[in-house]
Design goal:
The protein is α+β, with helices and mostly antiparallel strands. It is built from 6 helices and 4 strands. Strands 1-2-4-3 form a 4-stranded antiparallel beta sheet, with helices on both faces.
Length: 176
């Protein structure tokens, strides 16, 4: 698949089949794609990736997140069998740059996943609640001094993968 085709085909999946695992070699390729992302200041030690395939830990994150957000328990990962968390160091070269850096890493992973036929979604909201749970971050082996910023969930949709669509302009554009 060509790059622009993968970009046009990528869409957020919210109905993963939790029993259909992603092959290890595909997960590795997706992680490698994320590691090729541009990082502000080229400070690659400011980010850390955690690949979670452990359903018990994902369920625990769901419970903790629902409690922190004062809502009923739900699956913030939409049943995805693999969630790749991007954590950032407390030491950053500029305020807020960790969010831009994490977004670049995740976008690379989502495009690579789409290219490989793996469905995906960018996650942020529930991850913010996880970042406040030090015990759960320790259980996930997130290094000390790092906190989860966002995540990519990957797997296969129960309803089938996205169909290709045309690239189009859907945001406001000012061309001067």
């Amino acid at each position: 698949m060509q790059t622009l085709e993968a970009i046009a085909k990528r869409k957020s999946t919210r109905d993963f089949d939790p029993d259909k695992m992603v092959a290890d070699d595909l997960v590795d390729m997706i992680v490698k794609a994320g590691c090729q992302a541009p990082i502000g200041g080229n400070d690659r030690k400011s980010l850390h990736l955690t690949v979670c395939r452990n359903r018990e830990i994902l369920d625990e994150i769901n419970e903790s997140t629902a409690a922190a957000m004062k809502m009923e328990k739900r699956d913030f990962f939409y049943g995805a069998p693999v969630v790749i968390f991007v954590s950032a160091s407390e030491k950053q070269m500029a305020p807020g740059i960790e969010y831009a850096n994490a977004a670049c890493v995740i976008e690379n992973m989502l495009i690579a996943a789409t290219d490989a036929g793996v469905d995906n979604i960018y996650l942020w909201g529930g991850v913010q609640a996880l970042a406040k749970n030090a015990a759960l971050c320790a259980k996930m082996e997130i290094p000390e001094g790092f906190h989860p910023v966002s995540a990519a969930a990957i797997g296969y949709s129960k309803g089938g993968s996205a169909q290709p669509r045309e690239l189009s302009v859907s945001l406001a554009v000012n061309d001067i």
